[in-house]
Design a protein that fits this description.
This protein is mainly beta. The protein contains three helices and eleven strands, in the order ααββββββαβββββ.
Length: about 210
């Protein structure tokens, strides 16, 4: 079942003259959703000292989804992350990440993602592209997603779920601090993997 518009560069005359049937199950998902932060996570992985991975997450975030089942390519996503909520399990490291060496959370308290395009890659796999802003630097980012389906929880909330990932170079957003290692290499990798586990609840209709 497709949530986002399928990329198709080979449209035919038949496709333009014959209306595409709308999947009733897809159409039923149309609506606005709020990301449930208590059941979602936005995390990252960085290579440390060239030999191991350090994982962390941002524990304070919010966002919305707008799903359009009759015109899936019009679906949208918006996420805002509070930088001060960064958590890698080590207080000293977290404080360093909040400092001007890295995110400068006091000056730039939020990181944002605003979608500009959505497409289906096949089956339950999707890609959403948008603008990622960190420290007032905005660059495009594409996130590969898997749609995990829908459910109604015991409290009557209609939920949709996604998980996905993307890889960035932190230096593209001005996060350039590093330290050289005696044996060669650097302390913190430039390449960062972003991880998303999203559960969103359909907003009550007015």
């Amino acid at each position: 079942m497709g949530l986002f518009g399928r990329s198709n560069d080979t449209a035919t005359t038949t496709a333009t003259t014959s209306p595409t049937a709308v999947d009733p199950a897809l159409a039923a998902l149309t609506g606005e959703y709020t990301i449930d932060a208590s059941h979602s996570s936005i995390g990252f992985t960085a290579r440390h000292a060239m030999v191991t991975n350090v994982r962390g997450s941002f524990t304070d975030h919010e966002g919305t989804l707008k799903l359009d089942g009759t015109n899936p390519a019009a679906s949208e996503a918006s996420i805002t992350v509070r930088i001060a909520s960064i958590d890698t399990g080590a207080a000293d490291r977290d404080n360093h990440l909040r400092s001007a060496d890295f995110f400068d959370a006091q000056t730039y308290p939020e990181m944002t993602f605003r979608s500009t395009k959505a497409e289906q890659l096949g089956g339950a796999d999707y890609r959403i592209t948008g603008d990622l802003t960190i420290k007032d630097v905005t660059k495009p980012l594409s996130i590969d997603l898997e749609f995990n389906g829908t459910a109604t929880d015991p409290f009557g909330n209609d939920r949709v779920g996604f998980e996905g990932s993307a890889t960035i170079l932190r230096s593209d957003w001005g996060l350039t601090w590093n330290a050289a290692l005696e044996a060669g290499g650097v302390l913190v990798s430039d390449k960062i993997k972003l991880n998303f586990d999203i559960s969103a609840i359909r907003n009550a209709q007015a």
